[in-house]
Amino acid sequence: MSYAEVYQAWKNDPEGFWLEQARAIDWVEAPKQALFDRGDHIYEWFADAQVNTCYNAVDRHVEAGRGAQAAIIYDSPVTGTKRRITYAELQDQVAHFAGALAARGIEKGDRVIIYMPMIPETAVAMLACARLGAIHSVVFGGFASNELAVRIDDAKPKAVIAASCGIEPGRTVAYKPLLDGAIDLATHKPDFTVVFQRPELAAELTEGRDHDWTAFVEGAEAAPCVPVRGDHPVYILYTSGTTGAPKGVVRPTGGHLVALQWTMKNIYNVDPGEVFWAASDVGWVVGHSYIVYAPLIAGNTTVLFEGKPVGTPDASTFWRVIAEHDVKSFFTAPTAFRAVKREDPKAEMMAGHDISGLRAIYLAGERADPDTIEWAQKVTGKPIYDHWWQTETGWTIAGMPAGIEEMPVKIGSPSVPMPGYDVQVLDEGGHPVAPGELGAIAIRLPLPPGTLPTLWNAPERFRKSYLSHFPGYYETGDAGRVDEDGYLYIMARTDDVINVAGHRLSTGAMEEVLAGHPDVAECAVIGVADDFKGQLPMGFVCLTKGVNRPEAEIEAECVKRVRDQIGPVAAFKLCKVVDRLPKTRSGKILRRTMANIADGEAFRMPATIDDPAIVDEMRDALKTLGYPKG
Ligand code: COA
Ligand code: AMP
Asked: Might you report a single GO cellular component term (predicted)?
């Protein structure tokens, strides 16, 4: 079947289409009905089924004779370690770790926070939770204590599973003090923690609360897989919204299994037994879906890579890993290729690494700029497929269905909508615009299996953030257009979310941190274009009357505050004290105009601006930060 035929088959009978795909999953009780309409535009998939995620990701492959196949290849240039873990070994480790958690009282529905780096034990911890029906929430290691504390207070975990440290090029990041700090800050206190002690840096454990991973598992019995309903959450993953409170995206078990299984062949074009590599981090949705769950659910071998595209040790690393492990499909963020291109523009370091087995490269997480795509195409000779999705959806909204049909690539477009997604470009009034015209991208409800049915603890916020603006649609927060052939083009966010090196961050959250500085009366954070990271955050602060300390000192304190309270991953390094901010007469800060000025873009002076003279003041302030570039 062609892509058009598959997409039409879904449109003709959406429920029949997904029930058919559901046959690839091993259910305890198979779904009789696909979609459950809960009223008021709330939907759930496979709610009448009983199933276990870990069984589908691990045990069923052992039972089917894949026990000796590598499930995970751990490749860690930062520690000089390589390890293959077979499906049988993974089953053994997961079942025993789950048994230890169960012995400590972890049950179906309990939340468990996981704060760990890119090591196999992180996947073991995630799968062990799923085995028990406990709901995990992985927190990215680049987030500071405060961010971890906010998630602890929202998810109210019974336990936190952590590692003693993460390893960044040139520095070891001690996780335990960050975890201790978070538990101190949080109102909710977990019953206990389990800490995986890495040889690079041991953590101090608190008697009675903290358990050493090895001792914790010793003597534990293997736990069986606990069946859960299809609509039971397998995990919560927090993502940035427009305020400092992150959104807890809920991932439902049944839809997650069905959708991810479908994607491995139809989008990533890999068959069971083949090696798949997503160079991301388990702390992000790409890591959840494509380092851990999807490749394991589909019986592939997944590469768990603890390193960076450059500097670990150099720009040959991607090529080395692809060649050494015979990777068939590779997934990364455009910024990673920009890093490689910057270090090794002619890809001379590819020499000696045979990547002929690789079929295609998939990019996501941020807009893929044409230069990067063309460069990657030229140096690898492989198809480069951009694809567009979000934490909320958990899998591709628009992409190239390479396992169905390799259609022409249009550079600058992540291609076409996947079955399940009726993507529309709408004007402010919610009416579809003509092909080629820009608008807000929305998806007609219901969303397909695997996507978020709600936000954890926040059904009203879910409704307000996604469903209320365009009734009958899910609002993606992205703006763009669609061409005559149905190819989508994603241009920009419509909200205050920015994308820094493929990491989704909230400028609102950074503003809250700056506003907390005792000398700051008012502030604004914008995203400015950056050749390397896509966007960088830039802050402007107005000081409280009477403060006359050196501005540079306050700017440095602001930078440190964001690093300490959000984390190094925010990459907040540009900050400037100004007398006033550009505003409308009604007092709304003109962030987009500020970003236009910083990017050196032509812009129309907003008719409602309070005082046009502010534009020159902004230009002067930006000049001191080196903007606009070039
Ligand atoms: N734990 C602790 N600190 C972390 C961290 C982690 N897991 N991940 C990143 N950090 C820190 C970094 O050390 C860095 O700190 P610094 O300011 O002291 O240098 C800061 O956070 C920013 O990190 P990063 O975004 O990784 O920038 P970088 O300049 O170190 O590296 C790239 C640039 C392009 C190599 C890197 O951003 C990258 O690999 N990006 C790919 C993104 C990706 O995979 N996204 C997932 C979506 S597909
Ligand atoms: P996240 O939830 O962290 O995956 O971030 C999702 C957001 O990243 C989207 O809403 C887009 O703004 C952006 N994004 C992800 N993939 C792409 C892509 N292929 N092209 C353009 N923007 C993208």
From this structure: intracellular organelle lumen
